[in-house]
Amino acid sequence: PMKRVNLGKKFRHYVDTETTGLDDEQDELLEVAIVTEEVHPEDPYRAMPPTFWAQKIKPVNPVPPEAARINGYTPELWADSVPFTVDLARTIGDKLKGGILIGHSISFDIGFLTSAFRRVGAKPKFSHRNIDTIALAYDRWGIEGDIDQLSLDYLRTFLGIPPCTPHNALTDAMDCRTVFHEIHRPNVRGTLNRWRNHLISKVRDELSYLGFCD
Fold it and tell me: Residue 125: pLDDT above 50?
């Protein structure tokens, strides 16, 4: 069978970060996780066995209480964390080679990784071909009105994925992968709804033509 190009990328990298805030210029990384799966050469929709990598990052400045609550940060749980160094930047860069980056609000994660790389004098080399599962979820379920929120926590409930509290980068990356593959399952309900709406529209047009309705 013919092999698909799949954007010329051999891997899909699902990326998630936990941080001390929302500003990548001022706030810091607390954790980075990458879940990688090879793209099947003949069936890019197939979920291949993934590999997992995660690293807790030692913050330079005190962690704000709200960030600690969201991420579950405590000095004890971060006892095995490491500072963000050039060597760690190289490790992350190597793990993201040859693949397309996927994340739930992936621009947020790329922004923090880019800032962390630059702080230690490393050049960020990430793929420009990135996929945001927020946009995919809106296209798949939001337009049809199946969901009214796009957060990962809401999608977990919608898809029956166990909740993750407090947030954990590796679990979030794994669940982002699950969401990605769920998005690409056949949408039977959506197809039926479109056919129903199309049929209703046609019937109304016919009735209007015959003078039965305005």
Answer: yes
